[in-house]
Amino acid sequence: MSLITHRGPWDAHSRQYKALRFLERYLDTLDESKLKSTPCTAFFSPNAVFHDTKGDVYLSGSHIWAWMKRLFAPFESVTHEIVEVRVIPETEDRVVVYGEFVRHFRLRGDKTDIVSPMFCIITVGPTEVSTYPRAHLNKDSGFNAREGLMVCKSMKLVYSGTQEFYPVMRREGTRNKRNGVDDRNIEAEDVLSLPNVASVLE
């Protein structure tokens, strides 16, 4: 599979490619306000990872979907105008999608849209799982250590040594000897630190 570039509205050409069909369904779900009626598993694996623009990390498909419902709740409508989408193959069955869009939001009761640029990187393919048996996230986080954690390949996370997972909060917390914070009360929105990372964002 070679590089695919698509510009403008979805069409017969874009629908020839599995990754672009997937992205079209995903954006249509957002644009048509179908978050509540669509299961998270339609787009996210149970152990998916979502990085937002503030640096927060959301773990598990169910938690990502719940967060997105809250995020889009104030808006009467949301639409995505495609500028350019590029699909780059990584392996035989995994691709990375780089998408540039113009996003139109309309708050409930307003007559005009809020317009903002959007850029996203999405890895599409079979789930890649690394297990972290010593993870300690609270029961409401939507993450289960046995379920494992999908490492986003587009982030170029390369592990060396042991596969251990320690949550780290960027706010004051009760310190302990292990990783500097009280990890009994970690929330899924907290920034996560992965030790033994040899290379990040090459």
Describe the structure.
There is one protein chain. With 202 residues, the protein is α+β, with helices and mostly antiparallel strands. The protein has a domain at 4-124: Roll (Nuclear Transport Factor 2, Chain: A). The protein is built from two helices and twelve strands; from the N terminus they run E-H-E-E-H-E-E-E-E-E-E-E-E-E. The chain has helices at residues 18-31, 61-72; strands spanning 4-6, 49-51, 57-59, 75-91, 94-107, 114-124, 129-130, 149-150, 158-159, 166-167, 192-193, 197-199. The strands form five sheets. The protein has a four-stranded antiparallel β-sheet, covered by helices on one side. Strand 2 and strand 3 (57-59) form a beta hairpin. The two termini are 23 Å apart.
Descriptors:
Nuclear Transport Factor 2, Chain: A; 4-stranded antiparallel β-sheet; alpha+beta; two-stranded antiparallel sheet; 202 residues; 13% helix; globular; 2 helices
